[in-house]
Design a protein that fits this description.
heterodimer; A: alpha/beta; Purple Acid Phosphatase, chain A, domain 2; 9-stranded mixed beta sheet; 16 strands; B: Rossmann fold; Rossmann fold; 5 domains; 7-stranded parallel beta sheet; 32 helices
Chain lengths: 215, 812
């Protein structure tokens, strides 16, 4: 399975294995925590990571855009890892030359001190029935879409087996997005309430983990 | 040789005044030192090894015309706690002989004030650690500071040679000698299996000096091992490593001894034992202390002095007190749990009866039933007087990178000249041009760079060809990271009134929440606040709480220890008849109830089912490291036969393959499971993704500067540069598999952990043995410690998607 459609608050959301969500009613593609420039930031500081993975993120996003034809793309924060470096350039070019609209809910890593063409930077975004933020905002009465956590889930099986996979974490109050960027790390989450849902993501597809009453 | 005669008159006069006589090895050493020779002295702790060098080293300064303001002797010790003691004993000698030489200590515990003083002017004799030595080399004008250096002494070389700190020392020595060829090098080492090689590694390739001399003392220590086991082995647990229930057995020993050192294998065990002893013997309060590497240095120093001055009776400690701290008064030594190696055990025993010809006595307290077998094995080992080898590291590119950047931070370096002396070290004598070029590329352009927009910055190449770090930030970051001992991220533990208590690992703290109680340094504390890199705590009156634990590497049986253990084990069957009084008989009977005890020509495999799944246990008795590799190898080979997933666990006795389906051992054994051909390829395929290689890589990543562990007290600001080594490992595996540092992690797994040769001979042995497969209804005594181990790894040949689906079923 490559994607799954869910109706949440009467809206149609498609969860895709590329760690993006397509919101049909507003034709928006939503993703979080790309951390552009992380590898170059490390290299700039004398840490010799291979420089190839930096190229991959944009290609994956482009392929998702091709499949869903959104009108706009919304980033839920931490689009950039640190201050400007040359790795940003191909993204800036991509924003500039694209006919789509791009929105960034600013995250704790984003330190942007110049205007980026065709990238609308917001603190939060209220688009009924959803409230978009970088940090989880559970006090809100409005259903919250957020990032920041880099959620993953540790599956446990017979014979003491374990597998860790990044995931979307869906509760009654919010959806926490997985980190889109490669080389960003994950944080294991635990199921907190009955009825919470988890969509696990592997390299080639997704797996649903619902009806979690037994855990 | 009139100079030697003069020297002899001088030193003998002093010794006479103390009613001492020089030992043969001391006289030999003096002669060689005066000649300007280099070499290695093989002598046990407490035999007067400091005195075998120092008089001859300072002798030339007695001549007034050669009075000096410069550093003449560097004394390198592996442990900070040793420095103080070495300094005191040298000072005593200088004082009694009215020598006007200055002596100082420089290590991680040295105050900033003292360090600043040393920056301007070094003392005549400097006692330091390998890390601090490299730090001096990474400061400006280091060559000038060493230009009058006559002698470098590397103390306790046996502790350094089998680690990357040894490589660090080799590199520093090569640099020092290159710029000051009149410096001679002396090592002091306890007995190890490869003492000749130890000398060659230390001295490297010294021209025109016929490779130095090896001077052996003929002092032999007599060691008596007493095992403290309960009268009835029935009362011993089958597993666990704490042994707390045996506390009562220690009380009489502690009571009758003036002083006691209790060695534990881990820091948590140390904490726990301290606590339990205090509960059982409240009268010890004030007379007992704890010593382990995470306790704050001031407290540690206080403990060391208190033992020396006989102010305390009992110290519960870890290997932090392993080395030659010269505690004359220690009467009893107690080892809790298997020491894993004979050399370590003998060294610990040597802490008592610290004078030549005195008998050293050590009590061994097994923590679970099977360790009783170890106790018998140790007893034999000590009698046979044989110790393990410590193999030197070769081609450690991580250490080389750290060293080169250190040079680049100080005065800069020229590659051609530098390669010249690096090739003279034992570790890098085999480095080829490609590897050298790769290392240079790594520090200048970041190994490979295909992108036009790359901004890699670490070492710059200046116009005159000098490799130099020009960025102050890079230089600062490098200096705080120097060293090859890698630990988890450490947090400072402070009491609410600001007193520093020690250091605690981040992962442990992350399991605690505010208000929770834990045991540290023998005291219960409540978490009050965590901020930045500090954990603020309050004393708590609670009687229970979590025990602080540290990840610190688990040790493995040496091959010699394994051999002894197997011999002991094969005897169990016999002793049932021949020695009805043997306490081990109870264990033997229990094991024989459903399973078997193998004879020398037999190999035991057990299968049974529990709620966790189907367990298959193999018993090669080859030590933990070999079992880790064997478990991967066998699991991998089985997984080629059919899609299956295993969870692996191992200890010093055997290993377990746990699966969700029954494993027909007969079936798989027929497929040449123990074949030693294709060994390299099969291992490569199975350990590529394993924890073993990842663990090695973790150290490599930190040492080479790939992982930045942060500035002290300022870490918050560097969060954007921190990443897990796990993540890095994956990135290299997927994007740059020919990276030398990544490859090094695989190589190290083969050479140092698996000791490929040892693995091969284990396979050959198993191949010759007759297989005994026991299907049993319950876990056997042998299997208990293995199946309850929570450190596990997976190996699978099932399709990933299928595995996930199967696991998801469990949640339905």
């Amino acid at each position: 399975m490559k994607s799954v459609k869910k109706i949440i608050h009467n809206q149609t959301l498609t969860f895709d294995y590329r760690k993006v969500v397509f919101w049909k009613e507003t034709s928006s593609l939503i993703l979080s925590d790309v951390h552009i420039g992380k590898i170059t930031h490390f290299r700039k500081n004398g840490i010799s990571l291979p420089s190839f993975p930096a190229l991959n993120n944009l290609n994956i996003l482009k392929s998702a855009i091709e499949d869903y034809h959104p009108k706009q793309v919304v980033f839920l924060g931490d689009l950039f890892h640190s201050d400007y470096n040359l790795e940003w350039e191909e993204w800036l070019l991509f924003f500039k030359s694209s006919r789509l609209a791009f929105k960034l809910i600013i995250g704790n890593h984003d330190s942007i001190n110049f205007k980026i063409k065709n990238l609308d930077i917001l603190k939060n975004w209220n688009k009924s029935p959803f409230y978009f933020s970088h940090y989880p905002f559970i006090e809100s009465k409005i259903f919250n879409l957020c990032g920041h956590v880099h959620p993953s889930f540790l599956l446990k099986g017979k014979g003491k087996q374990q597998i860790k996979l990044p995931c979307f974490y869906i509760t009654r109050k919010n959806i926490i997005f997985p980190a889109f960027g490669e080389f960003t790390g994950t944080h294991n989450i635990h199921l907190e309430n009955n009825g919470d849902e988890i969509i696990l993501i592997s390299k080639n597809g997704i797996f649903l983990l619902d009806q979690l009453n037994s855990i | 040789m009139s100079d030697y005669t003069n020297f002899n008159n001088w030193i003998l006069k002093w010794m006479d005044s103390k009613d001492w006589k020089p030992q043969k090895f001391q006289s030999e050493a003096w002669k060689e030192v005066l000649k300007g020779q280099s070499g290695l002295i093989n002598a046990p702790t407490g035999s007067g090894k400091t005195l075998s060098l120092i008089p001859a080293i300072v002798w030339p300064t007695l001549d007034n015309s050669k009075k000096t303001n410069h550093l003449i002797c560097l004394w390198i010790t592996p442990l900070r706690s040793l420095s103080q003691q070495i300094k005191i004993s040298i000072e005593e000698f200088l004082h009694e002989n009215n020598l006007n030489l200055t002596i100082g200590v420089r290590n991680g515990d040295t105050s900033t004030k003292e360090r600043n003083k040393q920056r301007n002017k070094l003392p005549n004799i400097l006692v330091t650690t390998p890390e601090s030595l490299q730090l001096i080399i990474s400061s400006k004008d280091w060559k000038k500071k060493f230009s009058f250096l006559k002698t470098v002494v590397v103390d306790e070389w046996h502790e350094l040679i089998g680690s990357k700190r040894g490589v660090q020392v080799e590199l520093c020595l090569a640099a020092i000698r290159y710029f000051n060829s009149s410096t001679s090098i002396w090592g002091i080492s306890a007995t190890i299996g490869n003492i000749e090689q130890a000398k060659d590694v230390l001295l490297g390739n010294i021209e025109n000096k016929n490779n130095g001399v090896l001077i052996k003392s003929n002092i032999k220590k007599k060691i008596l091992v007493k095992s403290i086991a309960p009268k009835e082995i029935k009362h011993m647990p089958w597993r666990g490593h704490l042994g707390i229930n045996l506390t009562p057995q220690l009380i009489p020993i502690i009571k009758k001894s003036k002083s006691t050192l209790i060695f534990t294998n881990t820091r948590s065990q140390c904490e726990l034992w301290y606590q339990k002893l205090l509960e059982k013997m409240p009268e010890l309060a004030g007379d007992m202390a704890m010593h382990h590497g995470s306790i704050d240095r001031n407290i540690r120093l206080w403990v060391e002095n208190a033992v020396r001055n006989e102010k305390i009776k009992v110290v519960v400690c870890t290997s932090s007190l392993d080395l030659g701290v010269d505690f004359h008064p220690v009467e009893s030594i107690i080892q809790i749990g298997g020491p894993k190696g004979v050399a370590r055990f003998i060294q610990r025993a040597g802490r008592s009866g610290h004078r030549p010809n005195e008998v050293s006595k050590i009590y061994f307290l097994p923590t679970h039933a099977i360790e009783l077998i170890e106790s018998a094995a140790l007893n034999k080992a000590v009698k046979k007087d044989f110790v393990e080898q410590r193999n030197p590291y070769l081609l450690s590119f991580d250490v080389l990178i750290q060293f080169l950047v250190s040079l680049a931070v100080s005065d800069g370096f020229y590659p051609k000249q530098t390669l010249n002396y690096i090739k003279k070290t034992y570790a890098f004598s085999m480095i080829n041009n490609e590897e050298w070029e790769w290392v240079l590329r790594n520090i200048t352009i970041g190994s490979q760079s295909l992108q036009a927009y790359d901004e890699y910055k670490r070492v710059d190449i200046l116009e005159n060809g000098l490799f130099k770090v020009t960025s102050r930030k890079t230089a600062m970051r490098h200096r705080v990271q120097i060293g090859t001992i890698v630990s988890d991220a450490l947090l400072q533990l402070k009491s609410i009134n600001g007193r520093r208590l020690g250091k605690i690992e981040e992962w442990f703290v992350s399991k605690l929440s505010k208000g929770e109680v834990f045991l540290f340094g023998g005291q219960y504390y409540k978490i009050f606040q965590m901020k930045n890199m500090e954990v603020i705590v309050k004393k708590s009156k609670a009687k229970k709480g979590k025990i602080v634990s540290w990840m610190g590497g688990r040790m493995s049986f040496s091959s010699y220890m394994s051999e002894l253990l197997r011999a002991e084990l094969y005897d169990l069957n016999k002793s049932l008849v021949s020695d009805p009084e043997n306490p081990l008989n109870y264990l033997t009977k229990k094991q024989l109830e459903f399973s078997a005890i193998p004879n020398p020509d037999e190999f035991l495999i057990e299968s049974f089912k529990t709620k966790d799944g189907f367990h298959t246990i193999f018993y090669p008795f080859e030590g933990r490291f070999i079992h880790e590799a064997l478990s991967h190898l066998i699991a991998y080979r089985v997984s080629l036969l059919k899609p299956i997933t295993f969870s692996l666990a191992y200890n010093d006795y055997g290993f377990e393959l746990l699966s969700d389906e029954f494993l027909d051992v007969q079936d798989i054994i027929d497929n040449n499971l123990w074949d030693d051909s294709h060994l390299y390829q099969d291992l490569n395929d199975s350990i590529n993704t394993s924890e073993m290689a990842r663990r090695k890589f973790r150290d490599i990543a930190v040492i080479s500067g790939l992982v930045f562990t942060g500035m002290p007290n300022k870490r918050k600001g560097n969060k954007d540069l921190q990443s897990g080594s796990q993540l890095l490992f994956d990135v290299f595996r997927d994007y740059e598999p020919d990276n030398l540092l990544y490859k090094q992690s695989i190589n190290e797994t083969f050479e140092y952990q698996l000791e490929e040769g040892r693995l091969r001979s284990a396979l050959k042995r198993i191949n010759r043995q007759k297989l005994i497969w026991k299907k049993i209804p319950y876990p056997s005594p042998f299997s208990f410690p293995i199946i309850t181990d929570r450190m596990r790894e997976n190996l699978s040949s099932e399709k990933f998607e299928d595995r996930v689906k199967k696991m998801l079923e469990e949640y339905k």
